[in-house]
Amino acid sequence: LSAGQIIALNKFRGQPINSGVLTLYFALPWRPNAAEEDALAWGMADVSTFQIEVDIEGTVITPVLKAQAYKLPVSANMGPIIKQRRFVVPVGATGLINFTTLPRDDSYLALHAVSANISDIEVIVDGEQMIKSTVANLHAGQEVYGLVPQSGYTHLAFDRRNRNSDLLTMTRQRNGQNVRVSDFQLDFTMTSATSFTLITEQVGTRD
Predict the structure, then answer these.
(1) Burial of 72 per CB tally in 10 Å (0-12, 13-18, 19+)
(2) Angle CA(152)–CA(157)–CA(163) in degrees, nearest 5?
(3) Across 12-147, where does the E strand assignment appear?
């Protein structure tokens, strides 16, 4: 993600922003209790290397970068974590845009469209309508739970109640067995024919 996108997502979760500081969360301090906060934390006991790559803006003349980490003296393997990725949603006209190419592997915690040109969203999983709402109503419902929708973004937070268990899973029960969904559709109603970046937050084991 870009630094601006990381900051926007941190603000959405109600986290403080300090000038000159870019915070990367490997646990979830906004969760209501310690168990929820640590459930998706990054354990390092089974990790041999850990790297962070930072691209510095080309116009910066004398960049200075310092890193500081807060760690707990606890030995734990890395379990499920939140994985953030970016996709481009192509938009060639106003009106309904159907997007069907997101991965159907890990469960989804949230989706963040870097666009203010979306008026309505519908989510369909294996033919079942999961969400159909205006963006205004979605954001109003998020604010009830303390989330802070950001200007220029359209947020779809499946965990708006601030619970790790509130996920959009990519499996369904069929004949007593969990099977992978075969169809995952996002329908965006666009007010402008402008392509946009879609940030996904999925929960699963590391790749």
Answers:
(1) exposed
(2) 145
(3) 81-89, 95-99, 107-114, 118-125, 128-134
Read off the pLDDT of each residue in 117-132 and give the average, rounded to a whole number. Answer: 97
pLDDT tens profile 64-95: 999 999 988 889 999 999 999 999 999 999 99
CA 25 to mean position of chain CA atoms: 13
What one-letter code names the amino acid at 104?
R
* pLDDT of amino acid 173: 83
CB atoms within 10 A of CB 202: 22
**Predicted model pTM:** 0.94
Residue 132, SS3 per DSSP = strand
Q: Fill in the amino acid letter for 190.
A: M
- Each residue's pLDDT tens digit, 163-204: 999 999 999 888 888 899 999 999 999 999 999 999 999 999
Alpha-carbon span 83 to 166, nearest angstrom: 16
Query: Cα torsion at 129, 134, 135, 140 (round to 10°)?
Result: -100
φ, ψ at 37 (rounded to 5°): -65, -40
Question: How far, in Å, are 10, 50, 70 from residue 47 at the CA level?
Answer: 26, 7, 17
- Provide the 8-state DSSP code for 149: P
How far CA 136 is from CA of 78, 110, 115, 148, 154, in Å, comes to: 37, 17, 13, 13, 9
What is the Cα 90 distance to its own chain's centre? 19
